[in-house]
Amino acid sequence: MRRHELSDEQWDTVEALLEPVRFGRPSSRGDRNFVNAVVWIAKTGAPWRDLPERFGHWRTIYNRFSNWAKSGKWEAIFKALSMGKDEIGSLLDASIVRAHQDSSGGTGGQKKTTSGGHAAVSRPRSTPSSTPRGARSTLK
Length: 140
What we know:
Elements: H1 8-17, H2 31-44, H3 58-71, H4 73-81, H5 117-121
Helix pairs in contact: 1-4
């Protein structure tokens, strides 16, 4: 078993849910290979085109995935593999995402400097015109 594939126990649960009715002709690689391909895509987050060749052509896998989604097979599989609800306690994800220091609600913007030295060293805010002042057009 590879890292991104179902265990034998998980596959036994999923296999029991699969109906004998198929869309089109049967797959030469089997249902388990197809489900493992979808699990690989879900776990890696890779685009369908980057699916390893051992699973088959990516478009065939995608089309079959789409047909299963439309028929509700994936919903049944997810329900069968999900953990049961515990009446005593619940598990919540408490991931911590560190916020930037400016997101704490303080006033933003640059600090005003009182010294005149800052203006002398800072770059000009605009570029002077290359056209002499007297040659500029006043027409609007």
